[in-house]
């Protein structure tokens, strides 16, 4: 039988929450917080930005943002940004991903990875076919999802490393 860590298998609990539902969720109660959002003008949708700023302000009031942002053991984040890149490709997503990562980095979370996932530009034929990434209709497709799955297994392996426990509590924040 494969060891759970080799298999990238993890047991535990996962919560999937829209940012509108996650106001009172304490990120520190989870081993891994995944935050997913689309790139809008190489930034993020306003409601996600407001959600993140409000959370950070709350933690600031609790004195949890310390000089040097020391790492908090066992607290991890994964940043997932979908984008269409019609003009400058992935450069339209990276600024948004880096920006969101800072909310967690400031609190001492380890940013395990940033995923930039190509997604169709809903409602714009031009942006879907004439952009720098070519024809992106139907993205993310099965290949993209396969890659995400493999990346998730690698990420869990890296996160669990040689340490205890094998169970992971995970919070997905989606816009
Ligand atoms: C108002 C709006 C602005 C957008 N701006 C950008 C942009 O600046 N750069 C980019 O790469 N994609 C942009 N997009 C495309 C979205 O990022 C893309 O459609 C989305 O990430 C796809 O994921 P989804 O299928 O989960 O919505 C924009 C989409 C909308 C609706």
Helix and strand layout, with pairings?
Layout: H1 4-7, E1 11-18, E2 32-38, H2 46-61, E3 76-83, H3 94-105, E4 110-118, H4 125-129, H5 142-160, E5 167-174
Parallel strand pairs: 1-5, 2-3, 2-5, 3-4
This protein binds flavin mononucleotide.
In summary, what is this structure?
With 175 residues, the protein is of the alpha/beta class. It has helices at residues 4-7, 46-61, 94-105, 125-129, 142-160; strands spanning 11-18, 32-38, 76-83, 110-118, 167-174.
Can you describe this structure?
By secondary structure, this protein is of the alpha/beta class. It has one domain (about 5-175): Flavodoxin domain (Rossmann fold), CATH 3.40.50. It is built from 5 helices and 5 strands; from the N terminus they run H-E-E-H-E-H-E-H-H-E. It has helices spanning about 5, 45-60, 95-105, 125-130, 140-160, and strands at about 10-20, 30-40, 75-85, 110-120, 165-175. Helix 2 (about 45-60) links the parallel strand 2 (about 30-40) and strand 3. The longest helix has 19 residues, at about 140-160. The model is unreliable at about 1-10 (pLDDT under 50). The structure holds flavin mononucleotide. The site of flavin mononucleotide has 15 residues, from strand 3.
């Amino acid at each position: 039988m494969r060891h759970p860590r080799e298999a990238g298998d993890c047991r535990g609990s996962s919560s999937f929450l829209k940012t509108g539902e996650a106001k009172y969720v304490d990120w520190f109660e989870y081993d891994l917080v995944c935050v997913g959002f689309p790139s809008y003008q190489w930034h993020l949708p306003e409601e996600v930005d407001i959600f993140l700023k409000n959370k950070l302000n709350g933690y600031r009031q609790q004195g949890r943002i310390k000089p040097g942002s020391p790492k908090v053991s066992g607290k991890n984040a994964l940043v997932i940004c979908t984008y269409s890149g019609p003009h400058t490709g992935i450069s339209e997503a990276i600024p948004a991903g880096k920006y969101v990562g800072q909310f967690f980095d400031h609190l001492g979370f380890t940013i395990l990875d940033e995923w930039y996932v190509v997604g169709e530009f809903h409602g714009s034929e031009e942006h879907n076919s004439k952009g720098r990434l070519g024809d992106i209709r139907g993205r993310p497709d099965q290949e993209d999802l396969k890659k995400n799955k493999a990346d998730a297994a690698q990420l869990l392996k890296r996160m669990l490393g040689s340490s205890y426990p094998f169970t992971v509590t995970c919070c997905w924040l989606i816009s």
